[in-house]
Design a protein that fits this description.
This protein is α/β, with parallel strands linked by helices. It has two domains: about 250 residues, NAD(P)-binding Rossmann-like Domain (Rossmann fold); about 180 residues, N-(1-d-carboxylethyl)-l-norvaline Dehydrogenase, domain 2 (Orthogonal Bundle). It has 17 helices and eleven strands. Helix 5 links the parallel strand 6 and strand 7. The chain is globular, with a radius of gyration of 22 Å. The protein starts with about 25 loop residues before the first strand and ends with a helix. The structure holds D-mannonic acid. The site of D-mannonic acid has 9 residues, from helix 9 and helix 13.
């Protein structure tokens, strides 16, 4: 039996208190993966539970039909289970109205963005979904630059926004919920590059009528596995093909810059601030920076899960230093922001033994992640005369990892990184990546001493 409307669930499963059928869709979300289902959709469910109306979510998968096929037979319903080793807490989420698959029906996605009831388009498309070249600018190979059938977020946004302008439907708030530094600013800059190339008048209209607030999003959500779905089916008595398991913690800090209405996400604990930067930087450089270090150092030492890597004393010491001495010392915190306490809380979250968060999941797409997680810390610390020995060790583990000995490297730059190894070899690969003319030269250039330190930490053989 399958989860769906009218299915009776165990009494301890919290369910939406609002009338789902009475809600219009006010949000189009691009990239309806596990993170969105366990994060923004939960806040939206909280807002509608608190009495807000017409914020149901139209989810979009850019390529795969998997989530539509999972959610459609369940009438959009799915469960989120919080797990920390105590008793699981499961909740039914009703905020998702329908799921569109952009590759199958691009016109439906454009129509959803253009619909007058839509006021917000939010995004979780991962770092690589923004089509940035290694220097951070828009990849000139993006097909959407020339118009035609939309391929990326930029093509869908451009077509949807053009239609809104022509119909007088008003602007939108576009909210990036991805782990990029200044995610709103980056979305705005990259979108403007595409619009200016295609339709300068539209670029102006968007600048005047739309906003792109930056956000800090946080919840650890392992990619759901078949074993998770089986465990949840045993708990619910029905199968939920879209079930998500997450840590209990969640946080959302949003710049208060909306083009129009918004849900009262504060009902779920979201915070609205003038400047997200210190929170976003702390999260990227401390949490995500530590995560990536755990991933590459942990995998090299044979660990599979985050809680195993952080229980390894050699790795734990390094990760603590990376957070407390290096990342926390690389920016000015907001008044009242206690980075020491934040690091302590992060170590406890990483140690959650029940989550089974795979290191391999974090290790994916490193070329897209390390600039904002490590290289910005390195650059900022250098400017302040500080050193980052732990990040240099972690960088060495990443350089070893992308060599791809004995495993596949899941990264859009995997080919180019392997080519660096092939042409430069162990002695030269660090220079090929982080030297003056290296692949990452626009983000950070290693000094001679730093290059030697990274090279000395590379695996031998
Ligand atoms: C992780 C993040 O996969 C990764 O790269 O570092 O997904 C992390 O779990 C989230 O940002 C936590 O909010």
């Amino acid at each position: 039996m399958r989860l769906g409307r009218g299915v009776v669930l165990p009494a301890d499963v919290q369910r939406p208190a609002y009338d789902r059928d009475a809600q219009e869709s006010g949000i189009v979300h691009l990239g309806i993966g596990a993170f969105h289902r366990a994060h923004q959709a939960v806040y939206t469910d909280d807002a509608m539970d608190a009495g807000d109306r017409d914020w149901a979510i139209t989810g979009v998968s850019l390529r795969s039909p998997e989530m539509r096929d999972a959610l459609a037979p369940q009438d959009g319903l799915y469960t989120v289970t919080e797990r920390d080793g105590g008793g699981d807490i499961t909740r039914l989420i009703g905020a998702v109205r329908r799921v569109l698959v952009a590759a199958e029906d691009p016109g439906a996605v454009v129509a959803a963005i253009a619909a007058p009831a839509t006021r917000i388009v939010s995004l979780t498309v991962t770092e690589k979904g923004y089509w940035r070249a290694s220097d951070g600018s828009l990849d000139p190979a993006l097909p959407d630059l020339a118009g035609g059938k939309p391929i990326s977020i930029f093509g869908f946004l451009a077509d949807g926004l053009a239609r809104r302008r022509d119909a007088g439907a008003g602007g939108l708030t576009l909210i990036s919920c991805d782990n990029l530094a200044g995610n709103g600013r980056q979305l705005e800059r990259l979108l403007q590059t595409v619009l200016t190339a295609r339709d300068p008048a539209l670029a102006e209209w968007v600048a005047e009528n739309c906003t792109c607030p930056s956000t800090m999003v946080d919840r650890i959500v392992p990619a759901p596995t078949e074993a998770d779905r089986t465990a949840i089916a045993a708990r619910l008595g029905v199968r939920d093909e879209a079930a998500v398991i997450a840590e209990p913690f969640r946080q959302w800090i949003i710049a208060d810059r909306f083009a129009g209405d918004r849900p009262r996400w504060e009902a779920g604990g979201a915070e609205f601030v003038t400047d997200v930067a210190p929170y976003e930087i702390a999260k990227l450089r401390m949490l995500n920076g530590a995560h990536s270090a755990l991933a590459y150092l942990g995998l090299a030492r044979g660990h599979v899960f985050v809680h195993e890597a952080v229980a390894d004393p050699a790795i734990a010491t390094l990760v603590e230093r990376l957070m407390r001495d290096e990342a926390a010392g690389s920016f000015v915190p907001a008044p009242g922001q206690d980075l020491g306490r934040y690091a302590t809380a992060l170590m406890a979250r990483f140690a959650n033994p029940a989550l089974n968060h795979r290191l391999a999941q974090i290790a994916m797409d490193g070329s897209q992640k390390i600039p904002q997680r490590w290289l910005e810390t390195l650059a900022a610390r250098r400017a302040a005369g500080g050193e980052c020995p732990s990040i240099l060790r972690a960088l060495a583990a990443w350089v070893d990892y992308v060599r791809g000995e004995g495993h596949t490297v899941d990264d859009p730059d995997a080919g180019a990184l392997a080519a660096c190894w092939q042409s430069a070899g162990r002695a030269g690969v660090v220079g090929a990546l982080f030297g003056e003319h290296g692949r990452f030269a626009k983000r950070w250039i290693a000094s001679d001493a730093e290059r030697e330190a990274i090279t000395a930490s590379l695996a031998t053989g």
